[in-house]
Input
Amino acid sequence: MDRKTFIKTTLGGAAALAAASTGIVSCAAPGAGKKKHVPLKISFQEGLTPGETLAQKLDFIESLGVTGFEPGGGGLASRVSQIKEALAGRNVKVSAICAGFQGFILAGDPAVKALFDSTMREIVRAAGELGSTGVVMVPAFNGQSPCMPHTRETRDYLCEQLHDLGEFALSCGTTVILEPLNREEAFYMRLVADAAAIARDSHSAGVKCMGDFWHMKEETSDYGALMSGGEYLRHIHIASRGRRVMPGEDGDKDNYVDGFRALKELEYPYYVGLECGLAGEDRAAALTAAVALLRRQWDEA
Ligand code: MG
Output
């Protein structure tokens, strides 16, 4: 084979391989260029949902066609049967579990680390029983002390510890979800890409990450941040973008279209969960308006 034929053959082969692996075809497929149909799955945290009882809260969630419910992790083990019974026969599932453990994974004090290990595993076990996508966790808040120093060795240690925790979560049928926060709350892990890289380097399919539109004020791009989460993205939190109240209560600031576009391109199958306060007086009305706003922007994305 002369050099010219070799180049022609190998380039042709490479192009065919690339087309096969990406699904690219030489002429436009029917529907090419149209937006993908990806459903928006909204979730409400338990604490922000109106209702005196769990059943009343779930009634409200269902009345808006919302399908996810995010309880806190504190005391979750003792609530498993209560939550299961309340959800039976409804079109609502537990989305993620929001933290609730004691201690923290990067604690400098072995007793505080041991407290994290035992309380987190208890919540992970309950999360698995409830069919949750995962349990949200932060490695260390700014105020938690003594904390392991922010070094390369600490990152290696974190990945090792998360590996074990991730494998345990998988054995329970769930995951642990790393949440990057903004610098005022946690300097250690602030970007979705950083959380995704830590999840990857933990070498366990039980370690995932999330994005929170409120904390994502650290990011330079909503779209870029969520795309960087990629296959590791397991949950999303959302709030208004000025005061962390209901989406829509901060007016034009509350634009999520760019981030939603990333989620749709990723065909993100998990939940977008409201985690926010309330500026107005009427919680039910604010939630109803927020859901309408999110659905409108999702369609637009
Ligand atoms: Mg959050």
Residues 179, 212, 237, 275 surround magnesium ion (CB under 6 Å).
